[in-house]
Design brief:
The chain is about 20% helix and about 45% strand. The protein has about 450 residues and is of the alpha/beta class. It has a domain at about 1-50 and about 75-95. The strands form three sheets. The protein has a 30-stranded mixed beta sheet that branches. A two-stranded antiparallel ribbon has the order 5-6. It is elongated.
Length: about 450
């Protein structure tokens, strides 16, 4: 493996073309160092810096003389082209530009400058980037955390996970699932083809369409959201007008003590929020708590469920008290556990086989942690679906019992009684018949018939 170094200023711009995997890390030195099998490295621009040599003294004659001023050319722009995998160390203040197509995976860590990329064929992992991040196209998955500026991506064909973004987050299209947490700015999304989970957005939230299920919590700005499937919303909101719509079902959870003006439109509405005042008619509900609260407009193609936060569902002997929000940190917990174990393993590999091998191990660990995060988000979505199905079963059971109570079976009619036989003295009648037979008044056959009729 070859290695080359170029002395630079503290914040150079580094332009990279890489046909393999790419790992970028920061160093405290003012230099760019590249390791790889086949690469070219060139100075695209330089800056002269003037320094003064340390004064020296002559012990022989006791005189002192000052050193001469020295001018040193330091690179302020470096171009790197590699036909295989590259591991690059650069000053923390550097900015990174990835040209053309990076054919493998990309890992960028601990860079204070900006990161810009055109097309990346593999997965992307970005952590602790001081500036903004701009990605055009990513064909794999992408995980970004600790971004000091804005984060923007035009298109990603895999899953996307972002957290701790200080600036605004702008997303074109995500063909997989999307998860976001702790966004300091706003979030704007054109289309999510899979499921989506967002926890804690400080700025405005605008979502043109989510084709899968969507879960939102702790929204600090003005919200305008449309979802093609199910939508779940939880927590307080900023003062202003908010609009949420779902083509399927919509579940809205709100703190009972927080002021709100709510307008809901759906074929079926189930309300369990204790509004101060509410008006409900066929397919609409208008309710309010207090005054000077946000105005929230909800619309669903099938059903809207309104619940107070912390409330249990108790219907027809069925008790349900599952809060899917408790799953929100489950993915991060698994991710942190895996990352901690793999970091220890990477340190061990670093001491035995060198930093190139440990860098690859760390990248694999990051990918495994991201996969665990997605698996946990999937478990949360399944739990939410199970909760909705359980609530629907409870509603059906309650309605069935109510219908049965209202529809009691009619009392069956009393069957007609058989006609009673006349009260006769059977023994006396028999004697009369026998007397008539003896006198010859009736024949023997007539006497038998009359006796049989008496039983």
């Amino acid at each position: 493996m070859n290695q080359e170094r170029i002395e630079t200023i503290s914040n150079p711009q580094v332009t990279i073309t890489c046909a393999g995997d790419l790992v970028i890390r920061s160093t405290i030195e003012s230099s760019v160092m590249v390791r790889g099998d086949d690469f070219r490295m060139a100075v695209a621009g330089s800056t002269e810096q003037q320094s003064k040599e340390k004064e020296a003294s002559s012990a022989e004659n006791g005189t002192e003389y000052a050193g001469e001023a020295v001018k040193t050319a330091l690179a302020d722009s470096v171009d790197i082209t590699g036909s295989g995998d590259l591991v690059i160390q650069m000053p923390r203040g550097a900015s990174v530009v990835l040209l053309d197509t990076v054919s493998g995976d990309v890992v960028v860590k601990n860079i204070d400058g900006t990161v810009t990329a055109n097309e990346i064929s593999g997965d992307v992992s970005l952590s602790t980037i001081g500036g903004s991040v701009t990605l055009d196209s990513v064909h794999g998955d992408c995980a970004a955390s600790g971004i000091g500026g804005d984060f923007a991506i035009n298109a990603i064909h895999g899953d996307l996970s972002v957290s701790r973004i200080d600036g605004d987050t702008t997303i074109g299209s995500v063909h997989g699932d999307f998860a976001a947490k702790t966004l300091g700015g706003g979030l704007s999304i054109e289309a999510i083809m899979g499921d989506m989970s967002v926890r804690s957005v400080t700025g405005d939230l605008t979502i043109e369409n989510v084709h899968g299920d969507c879960s939102l919590a702790n929204l600090g700005g003005i919200n305008n959201v449309h979802v093609s499937d199910d939508l779940r919303i939880e927590g307080g909101m900023a003062y202003g007008k908010h609009t949420f719509s779902a083509d399927s079902t919509l579940t809205f959870r709100w703190p009972d003590i927080e002021p709100i003006t709510l307008n809901a439109v759906a074929p079926a509405i189930r309300n369990r929020i204790a509004f101060d005042s509410a008006e409900e008619s066929d397919g609409t509900l208008n309710g309010s708590i207090g005054s000077d609260g946000p105005v929230v407009n909800l619309e669903a193609g099938e059903k809207i469920t309104l619940r107070g936060i912390g409330e249990s569902s108790k219907q027809a002997g069925f008790e349900f008290d599952f809060d899917a929000g408790n799953w929100a940190g489950f993915g991060e917990m698994i991710s942190a556990e895996i990352a901690t174990k793999m970091e220890a393993f990477a340190e061990k590999m670093n001491s035995q086989f060198g930093p190139e091998f440990s860098a690859r191990v760390e990248r694999q660990a990051q990918r495994a942690a991201e996969q665990a995060m997605r698996a946990a988000e999937g478990a949360m979505r399944k739990a939410e679906q199970a909760m909705r199905k359980a609530e629907q079963r409870a509603e059906r059971d309650a309605a069935r019992q109510e219908r049965h109570a209202q529809r009691r079976p009619p009392t069956p009619p009393t069957p007609p009684q058989a006609p009673s036989k006349p009260n006769v003295d059977t023994k006396a009648e028999q004697l009369k018949i026998l007397k008539m037979l003896e006198d010859g008044t009736i024949s023997l056959d007539d006497a038998n018939t009359l006796l049989e009729s008496l039983g």
